[in-house]
Amino acid sequence: MVYGHEHNDMITKRTFFNMNISLPELLDRKTAAAHCGVPEHYLAGLAKHRNTGPPFLRVSPRKTLYPKADLDRWVASWIRIEPKSD
Q1: From the centroid of its chain, how far is CA 59?
Q2: Is residue 35 part of a domain?
Q3: What is residue 23's predicted lDDT score, i.e. its pLDDT?
Q4: From CA 58, how far away is CA 29, in angstroms rounded?
Q5: In this structure, is residue 9 part of a structural domain?
Q6: Domain that holds residue 72
Q7: Among residues 30, 34, 56, 72, which is most buried (max CB within 10 A)?
């Protein structure tokens, strides 16, 4: 993490190392689609309509990243257990 501190009208940066921060595994759209078993264009379409697909981070107009754990939860939400009918 980088924190800025004002000192004499100048911002100095101090970087703190050795912090136990675990960052989520991020997958690009192509890898995310393969991981979920859906076409890449399907994920692209869901990203246009918020709240209908998995959470994502748009890091640039051409780059969208998906946290792997969120993809796993999204896929798990598709599972429906139907009661047996005799």
Answers
A1: 10
A2: yes
A3: 75
A4: 10
A5: no
A6: 21-76
A7: 56
pLDDT tens per residue, range 15-49: 556 666 677 899 999 999 999 999 999 999 988 87
Is residue 54 in some structural domain? yes
Scored b (16 or more CB within 10 A) or e, 19-49 reads: eeeeeeebbebeebbeebeeeeeebeebbee
pLDDT at 18: 63
Residue 1 domain-assigned? no
**Please, what sign has the CA dihedral across residues 8, 10, 16, 22?**
positive
Domain tally for the chain? 1
Q: What is the reported pLDDT for 67? A: 95
Task: Give the distance, in angstroms, between the CA of residue 22 and the centroid of all CA atoms in the same chain.
Answer: 14
> Of residues 18 and 55, which shows the higher confidence score?
55
In the numeric block, which tokens belong to residue 66? 């998906």
| Dist CA 64 CA 10 (whole Å) | 35
